[in-house]
Each structure stands twice: as C-alpha cells, then as structure tokens.
Amino acid sequence: MGFLAGFITIVIGLAIGIVAGFINLMDEPLMRLTDVFLAMPTLPLLIAIAEFVRPSIFSVSILIAVLIGWPGTARVVRSSVLSLKTQPYIEVAKLSGVPSNQIMFRDIVKHILPLSLTYALFSVIAAVLTEASLDL
C-alpha cells in the first residue's frame, strides 16, 4: 500500500512540479492548486470518504496519494526546476530547437531523480502512517 501510494505521489508531484517550474504560464495556476491541497484537512476528509467508498488497498493508496502526498513533492520539484532551467545546458538545448517536453521530461528528470527518490521514501512512510491512522 505504501509503495503504491508513494509511486502515485511521485508521478503526480514530478509532473506538476516540472510543468509549473518550466512553463511560466502554468506556474501560478498549478501552485494555487497545490496550495488548495496543502490547506485541506486531509485526515478528516479521508475518514469521511472512507465511509462512502469501500476501502481497498488500491482505493486507499490513490486517495492518500491524491489528497496528501503530491503537493509537497510538487513544491520541491518546482523549486529545483526553477534553478535547473537557468543552467547553460538547458539554454543550449532551447537554442538548439529541442522541444520543451523533451527538455522537461528527459533532461531535467535526470537531474531531479535523486531528489524524487528521496521524496518517494518519505511518501511511503507518510502513506503507511496515514493508513494506520485511518485504521481500516
């Protein structure tokens, strides 16, 4: 359960963080969405949802990842992308005509991988603790 929630958390957090950090037009809306998810009282919300949805390992993992996990990861990834996109090799790739999606999801992901693996471990731990607090 923890590994599934951690995987979903990292996928969502990486995608939103990279897009928000690399594309200036998407930065503000995506970070406001992240703020909304960070401000929600997640544990009471998860308890209320568990009353209406039949809890299974898969559904609880998805709910934990969507409601709790990804906003912190997206913020940290965004800040790393903001510093990485000013590096000379990214500027050279842009000037060479490399498509933006290739720069975002090939070049930048390679440099963010150690950070994302660290946050994946934190996400697994948080998912296990959240599932234990739900006591389903």
Brief overview:
Helix content is 88%, strand content 0%.
Structural description of this entry:
The protein is built from six helices and no strands. By secondary structure, the chain is an all-alpha fold. The chain has one domain (2-134). Helix 1 (2-22) packs antiparallel against helix 2, helix 1 (2-22) runs parallel beside helix 4 (57-84) and helix 4 (57-84) packs across helix 6 (100-134). The radius of gyration is 16 Å and the shape is elongated. It starts with a helix and ends with a helix. The model has no long low-confidence stretch (mean pLDDT 87).
Main beta-sheet strand count, sense and barrel state:
none
**What's the total helix number?**
6
What would you call the structural class?
Answer: mainly alpha
Spatial shape:
elongated
Strand content: under 5%
| Rounded Rg | 16 Å
Distance between the termini: 12 Å
Report low-confidence residues grouped into runs of 5 or more: none
Number of domains: 1
Question: Which sequence of SSEs, written as H and E, runs from N to C?
Answer: HHHHHH
> Care to count the β-strands?
0
Which percent range fits the helix content? over 70%
- Provide the residue-averaged pLDDT: 87
What are the defining features of this structure?
mainly alpha; 0% strand; 136 residues; 88% helix; 6 helices
Strand and helix layout:
Elements: H1 2-22, H2 24-39, H3 42-52, H4 57-84, H5 88-95, H6 100-134
